Amino acid sequence: MNTSTNTQTNAQKPKILVARAIFPEALAKLEESFEVRSNQADQILTPEELKKELAGVVGALVTGSERIDAQALAQAKDLKIVANISVGYNNFDVPAITTAGVMATNTPDVLTDTTADFGFALLMATARRITESEHWIRAGKWDKWSIVNNPLGMDLHGSTLGIIGMGRIGQGVAKRALGFGMKVIYHNRSRLSEADEKACAASYVSKEELLRTADHVVLVLPYSAQSHHTIGEKELALMKPTATLINIARGGIVDDLALAKALREKTIFAAGLDVFEGEPSVNPELLKLSNVVLAPHIASATEKTRRAMVDLAIDNLRAALGGKKPPSLINAEVFKAE
Ligand code: 8YV
């Protein structure tokens, strides 16, 4: 951990924590207004270290890797805001943060299109066996063009796309599917308005119907105790043997062990995963399989979008510490206008 230099001016500056490495220019800008404890080494803090770092700061920029709960906040008596550099905030125990009187914010909107693009990239790579094909070439196995003995995939055009979780990113995936001539069905906690359904040309169906009829299933729902293992053995058994499953949501939404079994036994065709249970560890059973495309949680990872996420988190932090309502405040009840 580093503390910004120039201790003389630091004496008058509010103290903040930047729990993970961020872009140097963004850090330098923060150092103009704050005394910054920053983790440019990017080593994930242990819960004990995080608790210590949060004690004595008024604001913190964190990511999905930092769990913010009552234990982390136990000594954070001056803390006013925890700004997540992430739209998903399942790393936040929101009731505990609210009880501590701390504002919690996330980074919606700025990553919607980048994440939806990636969902589509993963879907295409999975259905058309792109990474498997590359491994095949690199292993020197491509000796001739062949009608039947080449990696044969599944079509996107003319197929049915099933989206579970139809928030901003889910709707972004649906709109992209229109350009591919796909029929879109979706399942969500609540049905979209007629106008939003029309904009995505998407029809609402039950989860069971979606799993039974979709050729490609994309998961874009937030993680919670209720969405844990939304896709397990029972749900995988409903899917077509020709179907693909794409998870750009969160690890834990899919039972990875049950998925590995379905892929191994080819009861579904293939899967594309950007997120994993217990990541960055990946279930070793998945690593043995060629019909799964693996990505290291990079759906929002373009430079432009990651910069926009950091900037929005900083806007949230500056607003909260300046007595203004942060643009993406999760627990509005904590905000008191000064
Ligand atoms: C983040 C994400 O990069 O925003 C989210 O919910 O999954 C990613 O964009 C990741 O959570 C790290 O904080």
From TrEMBL:
Domain D-isomer specific 2-hydroxyacid dehydrogenase catalytic: 16-331
InterPro entries from the UniProt entry: D-isomer_2-hydroxyacid_DH, D-isomer_2_OHA_DH_cat_dom, D-isomer_DH_CS1, D-isomer_DH_NAD-bd, NAD(P)-bd_dom_sf
GO cellular component: cytosol
Organism: Polynucleobacter asymbioticus (strain DSM 18221 / CIP 109841 / QLW-P1DMWA-1)
Domain of life, per lineage: Bacteria
GO MF, one example: NAD binding
PROSITE patterns: D_2_HYDROXYACID_DH_1
Keyword vocabulary terms for this entry: Oxidoreductase
CDD domains in the cross-refs: GDH
Family: Belongs to the D-isomer specific 2-hydroxyacid dehydrogenase family.
Protein name: D-isomer specific 2-hydroxyacid dehydrogenase, NAD-binding protein
Domain D-isomer specific 2-hydroxyacid dehydrogenase NAD-binding: 120-299
